[in-house]
Predict the 3D structure of the following.
Amino acid sequence: MNGRPIIWAFATVIVTFALRRILARLENGQPILSKLSAFRRLWPAGLRGTTGEGAQELIVTIRLYSGGMGDREERGRIIALEHELSAAIENASAGEFDGDEYGGGICTMYMYGPSAERLLAVTSPILKDFHAPSGSYVIKRCGSAAEDERRIPLDA
């Protein structure tokens, strides 16, 4: 007996199931590889382009009105913000938008470049227009030490 048709049928079911899950995540505004940015931050500096030696970072933390992972509308609004931030950073040649993480009632976005001050100057007008909920903030990190870090509230 030839087992190939059974193997193909099984593989087709698995692929179909995986594609349905991916499409459902996309429809809900969820990232497909949500933890990819976390892995990028663990790589050696030489493998990360603008996130390498001398790179500075801007970390935006937005409180979610609906808590947890946020609702569909809130995630859609944040995704639009991310696209706007990414385009502005790229157009200004200020660095790169690295990605986001959702959980615990917050969304955290990561941006890297040669100057955190420049990243802040490029992104501040966009973040102000977003009208983030109270308790949202930006961390501007100019080096690896904690004293090179400044927390800036977004609701101020």
In short: Residues 4-27 form the longest helix (24 residues). The chain has a mean pLDDT of 81. Residues 1-30 form one domain. The chain has two domains: 1-30, 36-153.
